[in-house]
C-alpha cells in the first residue's frame, strides 16, 4: 500500500472522531502516504493530525454559505485538481453522503470503499463505491470507522484509541499566573441539546470555590450574551474573545479542566488528553460519548439530562487536585500527553 485517501469532510467533532483511524492506518502502513479530504472550515484538525501527509480542503461550506461565488468555486476546482494529481491504492469514505461520494468517485483509484446504502447519510451515495464495508453492529462512531476499515483492508488494530495531534503553540504563553482554568462549553448547535443556564451557574460557582478560574467561550452573538450572563453569576469568570479554531485548541491545551456539551471542541479536549466531562441531553451517550477512566467521562443521555450533582461528581472523578482542595481527585500534572493521546 503506497497511497491512501481518507474522506471525512465535516464537521469538527467528526474530524476528532476520525483521528484514531488515522493512527490505525499509520500503524498498519508506516510507509504509505495518507491524504485526507476535509472541508476548508474543518481542515485544521486534519492538518494537526500526526500521520497525515496531505490535506485537501475544498471550501464547500463557504461556497454554499456565500451564495456560490466564483472565488469559492475556483477553490473547489483547485482542490479537485489537487485530488486528481495522485493515484491512490484505495479510497476510504467514512462520511457517506453525496459530497463525500463524489470526492471518492473523482479520485483516481481502482478501489473505493464506503458504507452500504442503509448505513449512509444519503443512501444513493452508494453509487460511488466499488467495495462495501462489512457489518459493524452497534459499534460507537469512532469504533465503527476503525472496525470497517481494518476489516476491508485486512489489518488488525489495538483496542486502545490513539489521538495523535500537534497543536501549534500560541504566540504568547497562556495561563502564566498559575491559576488553573476550567473551560465551560455551554453552547450547542441546537436548543434541544442545551443544559439549563442555572445548572451552568451552579457548576461554575462550585469550580470557582475549588480554585478554578472559569473561562467561557462563544461563537455567535447569542452565545456571547449567554456567556456574559454566566460570567455575571460566577466569581472571577472570564468571557473569552471570539476565537479561531486554532485559538480555541490552544486554550483547550492550556486548560486544567473542560466541561461541556456533546460538541466538537469538547471532543477535541478529550483527544488532547485533558480532564473532560461531556454532558448529554439529546444525543446518544453510548454512541458519541468519551470514557477514559481518570481522564474523561460522559454523563446524561438522549432525553435524560444529568443533574448538577451528577456533573459535579463527574468533575471529581477527573479533575486534578488543587492546592488546599479536599476530596476525591483524578490525575495531576500535564495531561496533554496522556496514554493514548499525543500532542505537542
From TrEMBL:
Keywords: Cell inner membrane, Cell membrane, Glycosyltransferase, Lipopolysaccharide biosynthesis, Membrane, Transferase. The keyword Transferase applies. GO terms for biological process: lipopolysaccharide core region biosynthetic process. It is an enzyme of class 2 (transferase). It catalyses: an alpha-Kdo-(2->4)-alpha-Kdo-(2->6)-lipid A + ADP-L-glycero-beta-D-manno-heptose = an L-alpha-D-Hep-(1->5)-[alpha-Kdo-(2->4)]-alpha-Kdo-(2->6)-lipid A + ADP + H(+). GO terms for molecular function: ADP-heptose-lipopolysaccharide heptosyltransferase activity. Its main location: membrane. Gene3D superfamilies: Glycogen Phosphorylase B. GO terms for cellular component: cytosol; plasma membrane. PANTHER family: LIPOPOLYSACCHARIDE HEPTOSYLTRANSFERASE 1, TETRAACYLDISACCHARIDE 4'-KINASE-RELATED. NCBIfam families: heptsyl_trn_I. This is Lipopolysaccharide heptosyltransferase 1. It comes from Cupriavidus campinensis. The lineage of its organism: Bacteria, Pseudomonadati, Pseudomonadota, Betaproteobacteria, Burkholderiales.
